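Morning!

This is the sequence you dropped in the shared folder:
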Amino acid sequence: MSMGTAEQRYRQLEQTRQSYLDRARDCAELTIPSLIPPDVHNETSDLYTPFQGIGARGVNNLASKLSLALMPPNSPFFRFMVEPYTLKDIAQDEAARTQIEQQLGEYERAVMSEIETSGDRVAVHEALKHLIVGGNVLLQVGPEKTRVIHLDSYVVSRAPNGEVLEIVTVEHVSPNALDKATAANITGKLEGDEKTVEVYTHIERKNEFFNVYQEVKGSVVTGSKGKYKKANMPFLPLRFSRIDGEDYGRGFVEELLGDLRSLEGLTQAIVEGAAAAAKVIFMVNPNGTTRMRTIAQAENTAIIEGNKNDVSVLQMDKFNDFRVAYQAMQGIEERLSQQFMLQSSVQRNGERVTAEEIRYLAGELEDTLSGIYSIL
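The structure's back. Tokens below.
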């Protein structure tokens, strides 16, 4: 049983989360920095720009493949079926069986239509990118849409077997967006011209139920208390990989962080070296007959007086060194491309995707990512 306010519980649990969040930020820096920005980041801050783009390409490609396999367009990714024993009873009445199958098909299409119009596919795609990079994300499945809550905005506590025991989220909202009763309770607690306040949502398991309430400045938000059955809990803390005894998961990019760092360093060296090598500098012998001003002012195809031996071009004798670095970089790119499935394409160009193509893609994801498709 948790003690204290929701904010105090959040501060206690975020100490365990910190190491996972730091690793997630390191992974995001070399892939998509805006996905999990640094702690002090705000809308006016500049994010780090990687020298290589294979990390971002790989994350987007892998997220797209997972999204396509999990929620294929133009076809339902689930089926409504009659329980086998019930089906056996009605099998003798062919008309009844046909009618039931038609109605179930209509329900499937209705659910797919709801998914397409609610934007759930967009939320799932964003969540997949967070799972690939940071290894953790929280989904809040609402009646109208699904929210994606990033790792830096929630904490979670699990039992040793992985079951969720407690979740605390934090979000910043304007005081004007609060209901009148809650706004009245926190009026004396606002500091100066505070534009936003932190709203904490505390979810705690009690036997087979989850108790939920929201809190602002230590005061419970009016009407926010609720209870959900375990099977109907709308807060889903997802993990890319499951490790027994740990509250959080590890991301796919973390496994490739060594290659990404090596590629980043080599790419930076080659890019900066190529920029230096591309700079053209003419040197003129000060004791020669050719004048520097004549060279500087001469137009293209101009005819001037001078001695070619007086003029030379500064060059970098680093070709072999660059070639070694480039070959090492190519080897790392090849490994990363295979891991991110950038060289794999099982879907033909067309508007419709067949069920066989989806099954093939799911199998390939299962083989490449060691069971992550099954977990998701």
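Headline: Residues 94-118 form the longest helix (25 residues).

More detail when I'm at my desk.
O.
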